[in-house]
Design brief:
Number of strands of chain A: 8
Number of helices of chain B: 18
Number of domains of chain A: 1
Shape of chain A: globular
Strand content of chain A: 5-15%
Largest interface: A-B, 25 and 22 residues
Radius of gyration of chain B: 23 Å
Structural class of chain B: mainly alpha
Order of helices and strands of chain A: HHEHHEHEHHHHHHEHEEHEEH
Number of helices of chain A: 14
Structural class of chain A: alpha/beta
CATH superfamily of chain A: SGNH hydrolase
Radius of gyration of chain A: 21 Å
Oligomer: heterodimer
Helix content of chain B: 55-70%
Strand content of chain B: under 5%
CATH class of chain A: Alpha Beta
Strand order of the largest sheet of chain A: 2-1-3-5
Largest sheet of chain A: 4 strands, parallel
Distance between the termini of chain B: 16 Å
Mean pLDDT of chain A: 91
Low-confidence stretches of chain A: none
CATH topology of chain A: Rossmann fold
Shape of chain B: globular
């Protein structure tokens, strides 16, 4: 039995050594990558100057055409991320500030994402390699229930979020293979989809007085950033549209655009405009809103 | 509590230490701690079904004794059929009732009658097909006087509910397992070490191979209508490796775990994808179920006695029943039927036992033929797996139709945000490792075992799929 226990201890030691080694190798590669996603692009950035930075979910990513802002002389980047919640959006803004970015205006998509304060695992996972590199990230995550494991157990964070920062992402980062996430200054155009499901049911969603939206407002205020919070278009066949009324009641400063684009031909799916719709919407935003300039 | 879960990683060492260090006094204390652990393990799924397990244990235990005590053959037969009837009755209600009710209603509807069947929509108790067959083999063996009835209830309970095999086999035989639980086990370092190697290799098969293949196979099968020939062919191959890695990985973990307690379980897989014909495949795949059907269905039906027609009839029966055993869906029945059809030419030519020996390879034409036979058998098996994986027969037929008629072979981007060829290298590496270790239980033991264990752990950590958690496929049966 003693011999067996020694054998098991040896296996555990091998396991720990392998975990430490892999953690070190993965982290080394990921922290030097800046072309594969928006998170690492921000974390590994030098101080930047932007007239407009767009933040939010895919409904920001697919709806704000950076090129149209640039035509107006506004240096712009769309940092909307598919699936992101305000929890991660707030962290992205903190990191931009921490990296010394000078931002004049932030357009924040604030509509369906106001309904929760939880993390989105898909986006959260992308921050994992940087947990030990940035105090801002550590602080932002420290109240998560699995923070201890993620922070202290070697390689656990890469296992837990292997679909985002697993071997495949590691290998592609090692090869420095870029993705199209950063193309078009962060805007991702969608095509027209004739088979798309042009209905939705958002009756179960309730907008919250969201602590991360409050946090974003606070950061913008203390850094003299003009925050423009907007709702974005959604198709007409939606059950539970009074959600937006509740948003308005809760946050009167949020500008309403959920009805701006009418007609399914402007949509790729019920919640996402196609490129044509996005261009119409962005043009309207540029026309309506006042942006801080140099 | 799955074998690849953190809770099992905590549960197993606790039971191991209690078993060898605290309750090691005699075989009764050893068995008692294993029974408690097994019942706890089972109740982690759904404690309510524990009553079903205990009832099944009591039923088989007492009916075996009654059978043995019966003075006449008539009474023995009565006890046998009562036990079989109740056991299969439970299986029927939980697993097959809704299927039969719905199929009957569909049939009536085909004749123009309106039928609204009452469906029970019961949750299937995990492992019910396994422990029912387990108990049935015991009572049938008693009936045929192959063994004597077990009078010690603790020993018998452990035989039925032993946790490594409880939820997905292997389907043990009383002749093999009962003698082992009737004696005190002594710790054997070599056996325990072998068990650990087998557990690690089983985890590699499950977490690295099966679960990786699953993400790709799901992305293809779920969108098969928009996929081209290359993607569909790869999707089928990925599923073939998913189900193999999943089930043989589970079996390896079960066998390895049992070795830690000094108990050997029946081998369930023997590198089935290296089979040279379909008959050999069925001697290497889910061996404990195939041999169960052979011993308790095929042979009682007359087996290969009574001429070619009887052989063909009995072969079709066991394949169809085997398909149906897997689940209450026509897809499983067609899967069984396809395998029977594959088997038929071998049977008619009396060649179903022509590949009994080890695979010998050299630099000659015979080896080329062997490789072609292996690839041919794998292709046939893979086509049959499409029916096993598909949700309906029309989906399976549509899948195959698209695969052979689309004839576009460009790599496609899948819904799992991967390209359809990305996994091929990993699967090939796995095949190479298995090929060069096909004479061993697992590839980690032997020379340079620490290097191999380190590589396996590395693969587990770096290549395993954890975030998209997948349970073992055979738990649903």
């Amino acid at each position: 039995m003693k011999q067996f226990l020694v054998f098991i201890v040896k296996i555990v030691v091998v396991l720990l050594l392998v975990a430490f080694a892999l953690d070190f190798i993965y982290t080394t590669v990921f922290v030097q990558s800046k072309t594969r996603n928006k998170v690492e692009n921000v974390i590994n950035s030098e101080p930047q100057n932007y007239d407009v930075v767009i933040l939010g979910t895919s409904r920001a990513n697919n709806h704000f055409v950076s090129e149209l802002f640039e035509k107006e002389g506004l240096k712009t980047f769309n940092y909307g991320m598919s699936g992101a919640h305000l929890f991660e959006t707030s962290l992205m803004l903190k990191l931009m500030v921490e990296r010394g970015w000078n931002i004049k205006n932030i357009i924040l998509e604030t509509d369906l994402n106001l309904s929760n304060e939880k993390r989105d695992d898909g986006t959260f996972g992308r921050f994992m390699p940087f947990m030990h590199q940035s105090n801002t990230i550590t602080e932002h995550f420290k109240n998560e229930p699995d923070f201890i494991e993620l922070y202290y157990v070697p390689f656990y964070r890469y296992i837990q979020f292997d679909s985002k920062v697993g071997f495949r992402a590691f290998y592609k980062s090692l090869q420095q293979e870029p993705t199209n996430t950063l193309a078009n200054k962060g805007y991702y155009p969608l095509g027209f989809n004739p088979k798309a499901n042009m209905k939705n049911n958002i009756e179960s969603l309730v907008p919250l007085r969201n602590r991360y939206f409050e946090e974003i407002k606070q950061i913008c205020k203390s850094n003299n950033i003009n925050l423009i919070a907007v709702t974005t278009p959604i198709c007409s066949n939606v059950k539970g549209m009074d959600y937006f009324k509740k948003v308005k009641k809760l946050y009167p400063e949020i500008k309403e655009y959920e009805h701006f684009v009418e007609g399914d031909h402007y949509f790729s799916s019920c919640g996402h405009l196609n490129d044509k719709g996005a261009r119409a919407y962005t043009s309207k935003i540029i026309e309506d809103l006042e942006f801080k300039r140099e | 509590m799955f074998f690849n879960s953190l809770s099992f990683a905590i549960f197993l060492p606790i039971v191991f230490l209690l078993y060898w260090l605290v309750f090691n006094k005699n075989k009764t204390t050893q068995n008692a701690v294993l029974i408690v652990a097994s019942y706890y393990f089972y109740s982690c799924w759904d404690w309510r079904f524990l009553f079903l397990l205990v009832f099944s244990t009591l039923l088989d235990y007492f009916s075996a004794i009654m059978m043995e005590n019966s003075s006449s053959d008539k009474k023995r037969k009565l006890w046998l059929w009562i036990t079989i009837g109740i056991n299969l009755g439970f299986l029927g209600v939980f697993k097959y009732y809704d299927f039969f009710a719905q199929s009957f209603a569909d049939l009536l509807q085909g004749f123009g009658f309106q039928a609204n069947p009452v469906l029970l929509k019961l949750i299937l108790p995990v492992g019910i097909s396994f422990y029912t067959f387990h108990g049935l083999s015991y009572v049938i063996d008693i009936y045929y006087k192959r063994i004597t009835a077990e009078r010690n209830f603790i020993d018998y309970s452990l035989f039925v509910s032993y946790f490594p095999l409880l939820v997905a086999g292997p389907i043990e035989r009383a002749t093999h397992l009962l003698p082992q639980v009737k004696i005190k086990r002594h710790f054997n370092f070599e056996k325990a070490k072998e068990g650990v190697y087998q557990i690690i290799w089983g985890l590699v098969k499950k977490v690295v191979i099966a679960d990786s293949c699953a993400t790709y196979a799901n992305a293809v099968f779920d969108n098969y209508e928009s996929m081209n020939s290359l993607s569909l062919a790869l999707g089928a191959v990925y599923f073939a490796f998913q189900i193999y890695g999943d089930f043989s990985g589970y079996s390896d973990i079960a066998l390895g775990t049992s070795k830690l307690f000094g108990i050997d379980l029946l081998k369930n897989f023997n590198y089935p994808y290296f089979s040279r014909d379909i008959a050999e495949f069925w001697r290497r795949w889910h061996i404990s179920l195939s041999s169960w059907f052979r011993d308790y269905l095929y042979i009682p039906l007359g087996g290969s006695q009574g001429g070619m027609w009887m052989k063909v009839r009995n072969t079709f029966i066991i394949f169809l029943v085997s398909g149906f055993w897997h689940g209450a869906n026509w897809t499983f029945i067609i899967w069984g039927l396809l395998n029977a059809i594959y088997f038929l030419p071998l049977l008619l030519q009396n060649k179903n036992r022509s590949n009994m020996g080890e695979i010998e390879m050299g630099w000659d034409l015979g080896s080329v033929k062997t490789i072609l036979n292996i690839l041919g058998t794998f292709a046939l098996t893979t086509i049959a797996w499409i029916f096993f994986r598909a949700k309906s027969i029309s989906e399976a037929v549509g899948y195959i139709q698209k695969m052979v008629t689309d004839l576009h072979f460009k790599s496609e981007y899948l819904s799992n945000e991967r390209y359809n060829f990305e996994l091929v290298l990993l699967v090939l590496a796995f095949v190479v490792v298995e090929w060069f270790n096909r004479s061993k239980v697992e590839p980690l033991s032997g020379k340079a075992s620490w290097v191999k264990v380190t590589l396996a752990i590395m693969a587990l950590l770096a290549l395993g799929v954890y975030s998209d958690y997948k349970e073992f496929i055979y738990f649903q049966f």
